[in-house]
Amino acid sequence: MKKLALLLICIASLGLASCKKDTIINQTTPNRTIVLNVPTTAWTLSTNGRTYYTVQNVPEIDQFSLNNEAVLVYISYDNGTTYLQMPFVYEVDAYSTVISLGKVEIDIQSSDLQNRTPIKPTGNVKVKVVLIAADNVT
């Protein structure tokens, strides 16, 4: 009986001694935030008069970002106290974005069915672009 107990203790000791703690380090790039100040003069009315748009340079949006990361865009009319995430409908206008290599285009379109010009921002606005790191698993 003592030999059996000693044998079990030896086997358990070998099993515990072979355990090793692995440290996993998350090596993903942290999320990045870019805040842009867009003056009222940066908005252009389209030729059909239904869309105001601005194209902002964001060199942080590279091909890797387009292929693998999420790009979120927010707009603030109160100097960054509050932000609205795009796309959204504000009063009677619809805000949307187009993300491309090194650029973010913001469009403001009339959301009603009449041929009405959308409301152009009357003051400077802040635009926050957030690049969310992600692992492409496809």
Record the SSE blueprint.
Elements: H1 2-17, E1 32-38, E2 44-45, E3 51-57, H2 63-68, E4 70-76, E5 84-85, E6 88-90, E7 93-100, E8 103-110, E9 125-132
Number of strands: 9
What general form does the structure show?
elongated
Could you spell the SSE succession in H and E letters? HEEEHEEEEEE
Helix content: 10-25%
Biggest sheet architecture? 5 strands, antiparallel
Instruction: State the secondary-structure class.
Output: alpha+beta
Contiguous low-pLDDT stretches (5 residues minimum) are none
* Strand ordering within the main sheet: 2-3-8-7-6
CATH-defined topology: Immunoglobulin-like
What is the name of the CATH class?
Mainly Beta
The amount of beta strand, in percent, is 35-45%
What does this entry look like structurally?
The protein is of the alpha+beta class and 138 residues long. The chain has a single domain (30-132), classed as Immunoglobulin-like. The protein contains 2 helices and 9 strands. The strands form 2 sheets. Strands 2-3-8-7-6 form a 5-stranded antiparallel beta sheet, with no helix packed on it. A 4-stranded antiparallel beta sheet has the order 1-9-4-5.
Keywords:
138 residues; alpha+beta; Immunoglobulin-like; 5-stranded antiparallel sheet; 4-stranded antiparallel sheet; 16% helix
Short structural description:
The chain has two helices and nine strands, in the order αβββαββββββ. With 138 residues, the protein is α+β, with helices and mostly antiparallel strands. The chain starts with a helix and ends in a 6-residue tail after the last strand.
